[in-house]
Structures are given as structure tokens and as C-alpha cells.
């Protein structure tokens, strides 16, 4: 069965996952991580994609972003992927593929899942046992939102600005949001939806999305799009 094309619509937040081939490391040093983030910054600006949040793990990364055009997201990911593989292979004296196929992504309902997705990403290193607290991990956007540093890669979503009337209030509210964590159901939904490519949101949101594209946005039943989604 042919794979569905990725669902990409401008103006909506997208959760993107890219894994290393056979779960092998995609970064092995601070220099690798800085190169990858630098390529993301350069190409997100070039292709008009706002990156709201990110986390770099050893063998995969997550992005939360909003493309402004139909083609911006795939163009950005292609440019980053190709240039980073050339860099990584040259530096580490290797050949061949680095990525586990194409990147995975899906659309999120902003008011229900955007902040939850940011917390989910910031807590990835904690779940992996790399750090005790999200603030202790250097390679995510948590530090930007918690007021620990300024990150040029990050473009805050308007929903983040609504967390407080001052920078201090927003930073405190965001830190509390991450500290509170997300439920196992939300965690599973966020991962599974991105890997499977089905939109993540309430029935009305999914139905409105379906009107904007011929590509199915949710798992079909008997050949027809369903109005709900349960996802990872």
C-alpha cells in the first residue's frame, strides 16, 4: 500500500519527528548539535517556517513549528537533512544514510495541544534519564521559555505570550506548566499522531481540516474519514 503524503497546511502548528537510521546517534558532540541547530535556524528563515520549540536527543529530534506556505516545511527539512548528513559523514568519516527514512509530522489543534506538545518535548530528556529536570538539559527550547537564555532559533507562538503579562510571569507560568507534566494519554497521543500522520485534535477541528485538503487527515473507517483521533 502506498504511503500517504505528509499532511502540511500553512498557518497550523506541526509536530515533527526525525529519527536516526536504526536508532543510531545523529549527534555525538556539542559541535554536531550546534551545526544542526544552526542549519535549522538558517533554513527556517529561508523557507518562512516559525520554529516554536525543539529538543535534540542523541538519536532523534522533535520540532514544533508553523509553516507559512504549503512548501516551506518540506523544503526546510530537505535542506537541513541533506546538508547535515554531508557534514556528519565528513566529520565522522562515514558514508550512507543517517536518517530513518523521511521525517514524520502532523498538525495539532493549537488551543488543546500546542502547550502540551512543548512540555512533552521539554520532558523528553527527563523521561530518558538524561537529566533530573528539564532546565538541566541544554539542547531544547526550555531554557528560552524559562528565562535561562535567549535562543535565536525560537519564535514564540502567540499562545505562549498569553501565559502572562510580563516576561517574568510568562517564564514562571511556563516553568510551572512543564513541572506539572502531561498525562500518559497526552504523551501517547502526541507521539503516535506524528508517527502515523493523523491530525491531532477534537472532532470539529479534524472536520474543518478535512475541508481544506483532499488528503485524509484522520484514520479512515470503511474508506471514509473519521471525525476523531487517538494517537502517541
Automatic annotation (TrEMBL):
SMART domains: Y1_Tnp. Signal peptide: none annotated. InterPro entries: Transposase_17, Transposase_17_sf. It comes from the Bacteria. Residues 9-124 form the Transposase IS200-like domain. One of its GO terms (molecular function) is DNA binding. It holds the Pfam family Y1_Tnp. GO terms for biological process: DNA transposition. PANTHER family: TRANSPOSASE IS200-LIKE DOMAIN-CONTAINING PROTEIN, TRANSPOSASE, Y1_TNP DOMAIN-CONTAINING. This is Transposase. It comes from Rhodoferax saidenbachensis.
Amino acid at each position: 500500500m502506498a504511503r500517504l503524503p505528509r499532511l502540511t497546511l500553512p498557518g497550523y502548528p506541526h509536530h515533527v519527528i526525525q529519527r536516526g537510521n536504526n536508532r543510531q546517534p545523529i549527534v555525538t558532540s556539542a559541535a554536531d548539535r550546534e551545526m544542526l541547530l544552526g542549519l535549522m535556524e538558517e533554513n527556517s528563515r529561508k523557507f518562512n517556517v516559525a520554529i516554536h520549540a525543539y529538543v535534540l536527543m542523541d538519536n532523534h529530534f522533535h520540532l514544533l513549528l508553523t509553516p507559512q506556505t504549503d512548501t516551506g516545511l518540506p523544503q526546510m527539512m530537505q535542506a537541513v537533512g541533506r546538508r547535515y548528513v554531508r557534514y556528519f559523514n565528513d566529520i565522522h568519516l562515514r558514508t550512507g544514510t543517517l536518517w530513518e527514512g523521511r521525517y514524520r509530522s502532523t498538525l495539532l489543534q493549537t488551543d488543546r495541544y500546542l502547550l502540551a506538545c512543548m512540555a512533552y518535548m521539554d520532558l523528553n530528556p527527563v523521561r530518558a534519564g538524561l537529566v533530573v529536570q528539564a532546565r538541566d538539559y541544554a539542547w531544547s527550547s526550555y531554557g528560552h521559555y524559562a528565562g535561562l537564555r535567549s535562543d535565536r532559533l525560537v519564535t514564540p507562538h502567540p499562545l505562549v505570550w498569553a501565559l502572562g503579562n510580563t516576561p517574568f510571569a510568562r517564564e514562571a507560568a511556563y516553568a510551572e506548566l512543564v513541572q506539572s507534566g502531561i498525562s500518559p494519554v497526552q504523551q501517547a497521543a502526541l507521539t503516535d499522531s506524528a508517527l502515523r500522520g493523523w491530525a491531532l485534535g477534537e472532532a470539529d477541528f479534524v472536520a474543518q481540516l478535512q475541508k481544506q485538503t483532499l488528503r485524509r487527515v484522520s484514520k479512515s473507517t470503511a474508506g471514509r474519514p473519521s471525525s476523531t483521533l487517538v494517537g502517541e
